Amino acid sequence: MTAAALTHAFTQHFGAAPALLVRAPGRLNLIGEHTDYNQGLVLPGAITQAVSFGLRLNGTDKIRLRALDFDSDYEVAVGDIKPLEQGHWANYQLGVVAGLVQRGAQVPGFDCAFGGDIPSGAGLSSSAAVECGVAWGLNKMLDLGHDTMALALIAQQAEHEYAMVQCGLMDQFASLFGRAGHVVRLDCRTLEYAYFPLDTAACRLVLCNSGVKHALADSEYNTRREECGEGARILAEKNPNIKSLRDATLAEIEAAKEELGEVIARRCRYVVEENARVEELTEHLSAGRQLHEVGELIYASHNGLRDDYEVSCAELDVLVELAHEAPGAYGARMMGGGFGGCTINLVATAEVDNFIAFMTQGYQDRLGLKLETYITTLADGVGEIFA
Ligand code: GAF
């Protein structure tokens, strides 16, 4: 949404111009899936698709929200906010306000209109973008002085306590810390991070939207998180240095197979292997262009997510199978929480058009489904936009 369109919509609705315009991007993740809540490593980036916000203090004690894309409004007194029914779009904003208040902020009434172009249900973290945009905007408008990492943590808390998904930090981190042309590796234990450029002359990241979102995504996500916690607890009985799956080795998992049980052992193995893949992939990126090796790691990540972690679905598996045959594809895998959404594909730049044509035809032929694709550009994280 352009700054002019947003300003116009805001002014029409609230009767005064916004004081601040903010852009908050969605995210992709090159590798490191379901590792963030195991204190592991992730390698996401922010994308050009984003949610934009107009904000202004309104001189009352009311928060007035306008969701431009859903043509829907919500209003509440600041002192009365509480989680709404699950799935309500205002939970993300309200959760952020609650987090700021909890940290001592006096939040006065404000108006907020927002809308964007992150396809919903595509696994590109439109919810994290909403949380991060509001957190960043209120922090600036009210001069609260939180640093960017604190804002990511406040946004994550909103997801836990208002959206009721026990997510890790990756999505909020990527939306706030993205850098144009780069992916960024985050160590979810120490919160240290490092940027890696992606050479777009050689390769592009193409997202293929399966168009499905299975209802069990949120509940299965929380279940995986519990299984990992349980795995870490069992492993810690033998080695007290294991504080999370980040600390475990494959040998330790193998040795505790009986106690873990078959399912939890597989979950643990996936997490340990995926962390190793993030390390290996970033070594390849640092060493220059080794796209075949990078691609193999991406394919291996999908296999683990499908077979050991069991968060893929038939449509995503078909997309990855097709990518194996597609012109220019180095690697492909499901991305994000799973059970639908997009695959991420590393594709030779010169072959992107052929790749997309092949995938589109193949998805239609195999499943009778229409494929939406996005050639992404890695973008900057949350920031102000100027009219
Ligand atoms: C979702 C979560 F929000 C992230 O924290 C992360 O766990 C991801 O699924 C899986 O890697 O996007």
Automatic annotation (TrEMBL):
Gene Ontology MF annotations: galactokinase activity
SUPFAM superfamilies per record: GHMP Kinase, C-terminal domain, Ribosomal protein S5 domain 2-like
EC number: 2.7.1.6
GHMP kinase C-terminal domain span: 289-361
Domain GHMP kinase N-terminal: 98-179
Family annotation (Pfam families): GalKase_gal_bdg, GHMP_kinases_C, GHMP_kinases_N
Domain of life per record: Bacteria
Every Galactokinase N-terminal domain range: 9-51
Enzyme class: transferase
Keywords on record: ATP-binding, Carbohydrate metabolism, Galactose metabolism, Kinase, Nucleotide-binding, Transferase
Family that this chain belongs to: Belongs to the GHMP kinase family. GalK subfamily.
Record's protein name: Galactokinase
Species: Hymenobacter bucti
Gene name, Swiss-Prot/TrEMBL: galK
